[in-house]
């Protein structure tokens, strides 16, 4: 029993050291709405515009994402509907089985009314493009289409 406690504590220490979001009570669920739009971040595996996109805000589970609710902390963004993590490959954003890889680590920063969502590995910001697409682009504080807020 003592070995299990030691191993469990060691695993948590390793997870904290590499920045993997810790599960359970620290996680919050949010809808991320685009600044100056009526569109929310949405996640649906197999969606024709890409697994992660933006569309009109609604009450569906596809627009709810769990994350560790501390601004500036490394976290995963987990779709409530699919229980899959947002991941980045190049400038694309999709959903995949959560595995703690660096491509699934995000940093949500700012305040609840003016947020940026950055891919930790590249520092690029989640950006709304066109009518539904999202991509990762170089962060620029002048670009309102890179800002999000918590929709309540």
CATH topology: Trefoil (Acidic Fibroblast Growth Factor, subunit A)
**Residue share in helix:** 10-25%
* Strand order within the widest beta sheet: 6-4-1-13
Contiguous helical run count: 1
Structural class: mainly beta
What general form does the structure show?
globular
The fraction of residues assigned to DSSP E strands is 35-45%
Query: What is the number of E strands?
Result: 13
Radius of gyration from the CA trace? Answer: 16 Å
Q: Could you list the spans in which at least 5 consecutive residues all have pLDDT below 50?
A: 1-25
Order of helices and strands: HEEEEEEEEEEEEE
Using the 3D structure, state the CATH architecture.
Trefoil
The average pLDDT is 85
For the sheet with most strands, the description reads: 4 strands, antiparallel
CATH top level class name: Mainly Beta
Total number of domains: 1
Task: Explain what you see.
This protein has 152 residues and is mainly beta. The protein has one domain (20-151): Trefoil (Trefoil (Acidic Fibroblast Growth Factor, subunit A)). The chain has 1 helix and 13 strands, in the order H-E-E-E-E-E-E-E-E-E-E-E-E-E. The strands form 5 sheets. It has a 4-stranded antiparallel β-sheet with strand order 6-4-1-13, with no helix packed on it. A 3-stranded antiparallel β-sheet has the order 5-9-10, with no helix packed on it. Residues 1-25 have low confidence and may be disordered.
């Amino acid at each position: 029993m003592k070995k299990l406690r030691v191993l469990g504590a060691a695993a948590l220490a390793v997870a904290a050291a590499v920045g993997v979001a810790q599960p359970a009570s620290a996680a919050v669920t949010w809808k991320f709405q685009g600044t100056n739009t009526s569109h929310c971040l949405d996640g649906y595996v197999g969606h024709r515009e890409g697994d992660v996109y933006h569309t009109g805000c609604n009450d569906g589970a596809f627009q709810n994402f769990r994350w560790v609710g501390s601004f500036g902390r490394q976290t995963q963004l987990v779709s409530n509907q699919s229980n899959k993590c947002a991941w980045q490959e190049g400038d694309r954003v999709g959903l995949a089985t959560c595995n703690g890889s660096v491509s699934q680590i995000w940093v949500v920063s700012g305040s609840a009314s003016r947020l940026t969502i950055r891919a930790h590995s590249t520092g690029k910001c989640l950006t709304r493009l066109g009518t539904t697409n999202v991509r990762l682009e170089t962060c620029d504080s002048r670009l309102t289409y890179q800002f999000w807020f918590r929709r309540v």
